[in-house]
């Protein structure tokens, strides 16, 4: 009997132990994993480009939407967005970047830690140039800093520039130590780390040009940083051609379709080009016009037997006005007076690639730095490079454009021409860069009137409304420090613009 009892106890112990082991193995919810591959997180936190004809491209007056009601033109402004997000939220880029850093440590894949610095610089610099001062040094430390303070905008830019420089240096060392290494989860460069390094440095130039009003600030050292990049190409490689563009090529597949495609028939009827953009192209007899736009229906009807001649005539194109109501533009559209996007180029699932950061912008940024005397590079060379690259992006014949129609010129007029070409190059790509550029330079002059919902564009986004209830003291202190008031107004001038 004792023997039977011992056997039974041993059997129960074995069953109990086995059951515990199985429970430990199964208790992790497969639908809520505690560990995620850093490559999956990297894909999720990499900023996506904005495709052509999205709402974002109304603000810099590239296009508008014709509607049959009497609504005024609607510019999509309101509260800004913080990229911190709730700790448990799936759409929290900055928190997911921190998660990626942790997972990269577990997986021994340091390249994600290096690229995380670039990504943090991207998100923080985006937030600060939209809104002004933002939380950074105390951000996302809920237990320690449940109500984080706002860091001055200058400090945010200094930290972002530091991250970008570190990311470039560390990525260079990583590439040298592990030849042929790549990064998984890359939506832009198919894992090519050398192209990522170029993108980091091209983005740094974008940030430095954005700080042009602060070129005399010793702490920022804008000119010195720009010079250092240009004078040390081995240490700071840059984009060399359009093939280096940080861009997404569209196709008929979920996640890869552009905004304007055959599944969105309403856009084909509603999208109109705006004269701010069209008239600048016409001013320089710019061949990009004939690539991106169709002639007005009236122009085509006036010469139905010679469409080629109609398309070659710059007088055949007309843009809607940003200074009238949408219903007024709709009437002109119905009367055949306005140009729409080129049907052959855009009305398909490929359209044109959506650029987040491009070679043409980089070259025009360098041209501006040279024009301002920051560097000794030949401004004309980089102006020509930038314009030529933009023409090539559209497959437009450049002809005598750089010698006769819009050649490089020096002085203040030359700087304005660089800014005009930047505006044309950024047409419906690179997110909000054209808007930020116009805010900084005033080029081109936007058109408004009292019949619109706004008579001018605001110069900043308001802070997220939740800040006034969830982080009241820090939020209001930031407003007082920047603007001398606790009113959060979109016309207030942030440090960057002073």
TrEMBL record:
Alphabetical list of InterPro entries matching this protein: SusD-like_2 (IPR041662), TPR-like_helical_dom_sf (IPR011990)
SUPFAM superfamilies on file: TPR-like
Domain of life: Bacteria
Organism the protein comes from: Pedobacter caeni
Keywords, ordered alphabetically: Signal
Lineage of producing organism: Bacteria, Pseudomonadati, Bacteroidota, Sphingobacteriia, Sphingobacteriales
Pfam families, per database record: SusD-like_2
Entry keyword annotation includes ATP-binding: no
Signal peptide: 1-22
Full protein name: Starch-binding associating with outer membrane
Coiled-coil region(s): none
Presence of keyword Disulfide bond: no
């Amino acid at each position: 009997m004792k023997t039977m009892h011992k056997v039974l106890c041993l059997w129960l112990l074995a069953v109990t132990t086995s059951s515990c082991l199985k429970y430990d193995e199964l208790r992790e919810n497969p639908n809520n994993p505690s560990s995620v591959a850093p490559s999956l997180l990297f894909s999720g936190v990499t900023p996506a480009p904005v495709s052509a004809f999205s709402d974002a491209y109304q603000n810099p007056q590239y296009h508008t939407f014709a509607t049959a009601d009497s609504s005024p033109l609607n510019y999509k402004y309101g509260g800004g967005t913080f990229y911190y997000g709730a700790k448990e939220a799936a759409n929290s880029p900055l928190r997911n970047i921190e998660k990626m850093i942790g997972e990269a440590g577990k997986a021994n894949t340091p390249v994600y830690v290096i690229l995380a610095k670039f990504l943090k610089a991207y998100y923080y610099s985006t937030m600060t140039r939209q809104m002004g001062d933002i939380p950074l040094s105390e951000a996302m430390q809920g237990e320690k800093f449940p109500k984080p303070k706002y860091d001055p905008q200058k400090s945010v830019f200094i930290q972002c520039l530091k991250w970008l420089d570190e990311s470039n240096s560390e990525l260079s060392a990583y590439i040298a130590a592990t030849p042929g290494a790549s990064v998984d989860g890359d939506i832009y460069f198919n894992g090519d780390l050398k192209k990522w390094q170029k993108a980091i440095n091209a983005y740094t130039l974008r940030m430095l040009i954005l700080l042009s009003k602060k070129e005399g600030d010793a702490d920022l050292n804008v000119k010195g940083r720009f010079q250092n990049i240009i004078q040390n190409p081995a240490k700071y490689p840059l984009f060399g051609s359009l093939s280096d563009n940080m861009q997404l090529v569209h196709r008929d597949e979920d996640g890869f379709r552009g905004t304007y495609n055959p599944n969105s028939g309403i856009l084909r009827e509603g999208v109109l080009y705006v004269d701010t953009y069209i008239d600048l192209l016409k001013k320089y007899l710019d061949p990009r016009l004939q690539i991106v736009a169709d002639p007005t229906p009236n122009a085509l009807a006036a010469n139905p037997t010679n469409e080629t001649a109609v398309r070659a005539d710059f007088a055949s194109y007309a843009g809607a006005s940003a200074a009238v109501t949408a219903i007024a533009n709709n009437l002109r559209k119905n009367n055949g007076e306005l140009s729409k996007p080129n049907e052959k180029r855009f009305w398909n699932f490929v359209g044109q690639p959506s650029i987040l950061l491009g070679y043409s912008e980089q070259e025009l940024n360098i041209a501006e730095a040279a024009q301002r005397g920051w560097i000794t590079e030949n401004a004309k060379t980089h102006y020509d490079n930038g314009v030529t690259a933009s023409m090539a992006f559209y497959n437009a014949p450049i002809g005598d454009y750089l010698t006769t129609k819009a050649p490089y010129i020096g002085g203040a007029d030359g700087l304005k021409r660089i800014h005009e070409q930047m505006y044309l190059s950024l047409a419906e790509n690179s997110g909000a860069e054209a808007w930020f550029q116009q805010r900084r330079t005033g080029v081109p002059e936007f058109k408004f009137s009292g019949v619109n919902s706004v008579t001018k564009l605001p110069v900043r986004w308001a802070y997220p409304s939740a800040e006034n209830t969830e982080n009241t003291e820090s939020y209001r202190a930031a407003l007082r420090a920047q603007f001398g008031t606790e009113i959060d107004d979109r016309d207030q001038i942030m440090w960057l613009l002073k």
